[in-house]
Structure formats: structure tokens, C-alpha cells
Design goal:
Order of helices and strands: EHEEHHEHEEEHEH
Shape: globular
Distance between the termini: 9 Å
Structural class: alpha/beta
Radius of gyration: 16 Å
Number of helices: 6
Number of strands: 8
Helix content: 40-55%
Strand content: 15-25%
Oligomer: single chain
Length: about 180
């Protein structure tokens, strides 16, 4: 099967997740094309059996480059088997209020773009303190403290469950249909 993965990232965790998905699918024998959303002008979606879109959630929204890609390709995406991988720290916890907010952000994104993914799988992100400037690091430490998380201010802390993501990717790939 031919699979396109389009991603947008702020601090690099979503790129790492997209690369993991691409490697896993390629290892299973799929032909995979991995593109950053800013490089995905018009990739000709009809040549793919499935498409994965992934972006990280920051301050209530996803990266504009991925939103623009989803909007401009919504009709084609809606005809294909697709997977949306929203990446957020909220997905690492079990706080109902956080999950409600996360689901609201995803619903708003999908309504705004006109894209209805075949499946959505939430992926926990990471604190990337080595990527943050002073003010963002301070804000992220404060958010972590409010959630009872202990973080080392000069080290990254990853929450992505790679095993669960692998199972989700395998299940989604099993639903792909040959054209």
C-alpha cells in the first residue's frame, strides 16, 4: 500500500511520532512518503491508499500549515482511508476536563478544515525543555506543577506510548484497501 504522512511540529515530538509511523509502516512493506505540512503543497493524494495527518496542539490550536493542507485537500482526504494523530500533553493524563478540552479542539479543527478522518488516535506528547526559551520553559514548568508532574527543568520528558502507537498504526493499516 502507498501511504502519505503529513505532519506539523513545534518542538519536534510530532516529527518523531511521524517518523516512527513511517518506519513502522515501511517495515511492514508499505511504500511511505513523509512530508512536513509546509512542503506538502499538492502531493496528488489519489496515488495513495491512505493518509495520516499529525500535528501538535498548542494553546488550543494546531499548526496553521496542517490546517491549510487539510482544508485545501479535504475533498480528497474524505474519499481516502485517513488517520488523524493529534499530539498533546493532555493525552498523557486522565483528567476529564483536559480530555473535554482536547476533544473540543479536535472537533473545531475538523469543522474548520472540512476533513472527517476515518479514525483519530490521540498521542501523548512531551515536555521539550531543551527546545524552550526561558519564558516558555517557565510556563511549561508551571503547567506541569499544576498537574502534579515533577519535571527536570533542563531535561526533556516524553509521554508518548510507543507500543500503543504501534498497535494503533498496525490496526489502521489493516483497514487500507488496494485501489
Amino acid at each position: 500500500m502507498k501511504i502519505l504522512i503529513v505532519y506539523a511540529t513545534t518542538d519536534g515530538q510530532t516529527r518523531k511520532i511521524a517518523r516512527f509511523c513511517a518506519d513502522r509502516l515501511a517495515d511492514e512493506g508499505h511504500a511511505v512518503e513523509l512530508l512536513h505540512a509546509t512542503d506538502a503543497d499538492s502531493p496528488g493524494l489519489s496515488r495513495f491508499n491512505g493518509v495520516i495527518l499529525s500535528a501538535s496542539l498548542h494553546v488550543g490550536g494546531f499548526q496553521t500549515a496542517l490546517a491549510a493542507f487539510a482544508s485545501s485537500n479535504a475533498a480528497e482526504l474524505n474519499r481516502l482511508t485517513t488517520l488523524f494523530l493529534p499530539v498533546s500533553l493532555s493525552a498523557a493524563g486522565d483528567d476529564k476536563e483536559d480530555w473535554d478540552g482536547l476533544n473540543d479542539c479536535v472537533a473545531k479543527f475538523l469543522k474548520q478544515t472540512g476533513w472527517t478522518p476515518t479514525q483519530t488516535v490521540h498521542v501523548a506528547g512531551a515536555f521539550k525543555f531543551t527546545e524552550y526559551d526561558f519564558f516558555r520553559a517557565w510556563a511549561m514548568r508551571r503547567i506541569a506543577a499544576q498537574k502534579g508532574e515533577v519535571v527536570e527543568p533542563h531535561a526533556d520528558k516524553e509521554y508518548t506510548d510507543w507500543s500503543a502507537l504501534g498497535v494503533a498504526i498496525d490496526r489502521w493499516a489493516a483497514t487500507l484497501k488496494a485501489e
